[in-house]
User: Fold ParB N-terminal domain-containing protein from Roseovarius ramblicola.
Amino acid sequence: MRLIETREMALDDILVEDRLRPVDEMGVSAILMTINEGGATTDPIDVRRVRRKGVVTYRLIDGAHRMAAERKLGNTTILASIYEGTDADARLMEIERNLARAEMKPVDRAVFLLEYKEAYEKKHPEARAAIGAALIAKRWDTTGTMPVVSFAAKIGQMTGQDESTVRRQIRAVKALERPEIDALRNSPNWICYKDIAEIGKIAEDEERRFAVQSLSAGEAKTVKAARKAYAASQGKAAVPLSDKDQKLARLADAWARAGEVNRRKFVEANAAEIEDLLKALYHGEDAA
Assistant:
């Protein structure tokens, strides 16, 4: 990408389309908080100038959250760095800018990694992992003095992650459909890389959708719990115990393993509370 200039631009003159992730209100709020606390507004957003059939348009590369924050402040302009380049280069810049940020959700980061891999290897076919005969030929090719680094190695340099971690994230999100990704983004529970990887391992579409729905609705806290619930719904396993029943089962197990001497000690130490509970039970009172 070639930088042309940096200047104030009207927000309405910038096209915002085909984004890899939606604007997150928490992200916008964080920017507004920084501004309200007296911090610098933000770095310039990145915009691409496109000239087609004599018509010039300006398309956003990076900075949707900053644009949203400026609108909330009632501003109509924003500082923008304007570039020229290809569609592929613009996509690579968008992804690189986002991957450099720490606040991204794991599911968003995995989506960006997959998109970056495809864009990077399209631009640099020689960076694709070679197999079979192609791998042998690549090993014996000594003509290149400046080989293009592999995608996973490049991401490792950018983010500090090892190559195997990068590849696992890509494999996981590649198995997900767009509605499933959107659902995980909105989950009330934090969806970590391990969760995404576990979901990606589910081969059956129906089971995977069930797991995603359970997680995104807060019905299951882990992928393992969601899969157990799915197996039960298909008659392949016992219905999972509720949180209340699990606690009761653990209490009963501890009582059974305690032995008579420890049970007597427990009853003596908790006699008053046990007596109150027995009275409530006798009178048919519900537990609080």
About this structure: The longest helix spans residues 243-269. Confidence is low (pLDDT under 50) at residues 130-147. The beta strands are 2-10, 14-15, 45-52, 55-62, 77-84. The radius of gyration is 28 Å.
